[in-house]
Design a protein that fits this description.
Layout: E1 9-13, H1 17-29, E2 33-37, H2 40-49, E3 54-57, E4 60-61, E5 64-65, H3 66-75, E6 82-86, H4 91-100, E7 104-107, H5 112-126, E8 134-136, E9 141-144, E10 147-150, H6 155-164, E11 169-171, H7 172-180, H8 188-202, E12 210-214, E13 218-222
Parallel strand pairs: 1-2, 1-3, 3-6, 6-7
Antiparallel strand pairs: 4-5, 8-9, 9-10, 11-13, 12-13
Length: 223
C-alpha cells in the first residue's frame, strides 16, 4: 500500500539452529524481515543479491570467522550496521570485531529484549537526519524542496517556536504566551484553532514535518 513504510531487512548469520530459529521468529514478530543463513557463503550470496539494512553476525561459523565477512562487507563500501552476536567474549575478540567494522558486539548467552534494544539503537544512529524546512523570517515562509508555505503575522511566532523546538513537546501555555501575550479574553480554544491553520499550511510542504497533539500537555512538531 502506498505510504506504508518498508520493513527493515535483517541478514542473520547464525549456524546454531536453536538460536537462529529463536532470533528469526522473535524479529519477525517485531515486524522485521529476516534472511537467515548459516554460513559465510550464504551470507555472501545474500548480500550479492540485495544488501540488507542491518546484519546480525556470529563469529564462529562452519566456513570461517564472521569478522572476515564483516571486513569484506566494509571494503565493498556497505554501511549497514553490523551487530556481532557470538560466544567469543574475550576483550581481544571484541576488539577484533570492532576493528573489522562491527558497530556493536553482544555476547551469548543473551536476552532477546537486549538484542532488540541494541538493534533499535543501531537503526537510530544509521537513520538519515530529519529534513526540516528552511525558515525565511522576512517573508514568514517555510521552504522545503520546491514547496513553500507562508504564514500570517499571528501564525508565524507559533510556527517558528514549534520549528525551533522540533521533536520536543511545547505546552499550550507557552504557545498562548507567544501568540497572544497579555491579550484579554483569549482561551485555549484559540491555540487549537491556530494549530489547525498551521497543520493545513504545513500540508503544502508534502512530506514535511507534522504537528501532533500530546494529550493534556500541548503539541510537538515531528520532522
Amino acid at each position: 500500500m502506498s505510504g506504508t513504510p518498508k520493513p527493515c531487512r535483517i541478514l542473520l548469520v547464525e549456524d546454531d539452529v536453536g538460536i537462529g530459529r529463536l532470533v528469526e521468529r522473535g524479529l519477525a514478530a517485531e515486524g522485521y524481515e529476516v534472511d537467515w543463513v548459516r554460513d559465510l557463503m550464504g551470507a555472501t550470496e545474500t548480500v550479492r543479491a540485495s544488501v540488507p539494512d542491518l546484519v546480525i553476525l556470529d563469529r564462529m561459523l562452519p566456513d570461517g570467522d564472521g569478522a572476515a565477512f564483516c571486513a569484506a562487507f566494509r571494503r565493498l563500501g556497505h554501511s549497514a550496521p553490523i551487530c556481532m552476536l557470538t560466544a567469543r567474549d574475550a576483550l581481544e575478540d571484541k576488539l577484533r570485531g570492532f576493528e573489522a567494522g562491527a558497530d556493536d558486539y553482544l555476547t551469548k548467552p543473551f536476552e532477546f529484549d537486549e538484542l532488540l534494544a541494541r538493534l533499535a539503537a543501531l537503526r537510530r544512529r544509521a537513520a538519515p537526519p530529519p529534513k526540516l524546512p528552511l525558515a525565511d523570517e522576512e517573508s514568514r515562509t517555510l521552504i522545503l524542496g520546491g514547496a513553500r508555505a507562508s504564514f500570517t503575522p499571528r501564525e508565524w511566532p507559533l510556527m517558528r517556536h514549534l520549528l525551533t523546538n522540533a521533536g520536543q513537546t511545547v505546552s499550550r501555555e507557552a504557545l498562548m504566551e507567544i501568540g497572544w501575550g497579555d491579550e484579554p479574553d483569549v482561551t485555549d480554544n484559540a491555540v487549537d484553532v491556530y494549530i489547525g491553520y498551521l497543520r493545513r499550511k504545513l500540508a503544502k510542504l508534502g512530506d514535511g514535518p507534522k504537528i501532533e497533539t500530546v494529550r493534556g500537555v500541548g503539541f510537538i512538531l515531528v520532522p
